[in-house]
Amino acid sequence: MPEAPGGHIDARRVEIAVALDRTRRRIVAACAEVTRDPGEVTLVAVTKTYPASDVRHLLALGVYDIGENRDSEASVKAAEVGPGPRWHFVGQLQRNKCRSVVGYATMVHSVDRASLALTLAEAVAQEERAPLDVLLQVSLDGDPSRGGVPPTDLHRLADVVIDRPELTLRGLMAVAPLGWEPVRAFDHLAQVYGDFGIGYPTVDVLSAGMSGDLTEAIRAGATHVRVGSALLGRQPAAGLA
Ligand SMILES: *Cc1c(COP(=O)(O)O)cnc(C)c1O
What pLDDT, on a 0 to 100 scale, did the predictor assign at position 91? Predict the structure, then answer.
């Protein structure tokens, strides 16, 4: 049992441990359905709106992949937590935040335009850090308001990324469009990913599936699931809303 400094059991850590166990069981069950090895699926814990102390609980429980969707929040949390997590940036990203994001992120899941890719590459060069892992965000329904490029534009954007030594093209990310059945969305995504990966030797990541639809995403081949509320709860933590 985890103990807080005073010697008593830390209730929040126990709560997260229980939710983590439930989530891992869902991942294992989804893999079993399609005879995949659960070791192929990386759980990215999305900690947006939750405090740095929750990130520390996750690290203590063996979860090192941590996702955030806003730089203003993530940069503060990353500084507070220090070394340990692999930070995944999963939200829509403005070019003026790239310098900050490359200061802590190992992977950006949401690259959806050439100008953003180029600005990230410049920021990596200035930071003199290791190459940044990049996923292209696909829009399955063509609605630009939620970010993402249509499947037909993926190769053009991929070619911009692979031209830059500061960026490593790792794969694709998508969110199931509003109103779509997850099965339909992720089967379509799997097809797009299958066609896309050919010709890019560094591509091995398909980031899909959240708390509500990770089972369907894993059945369709997701290698990274991004899970927030199923691990940390539905309401923002007190004082952070
Ligand atoms: C918040 C968020 C998630 C996690 O969503 P939950 O439904 O809370 O699991 C995943 N991906 C992105 C891009 C997000 O912004």
Answer: 97
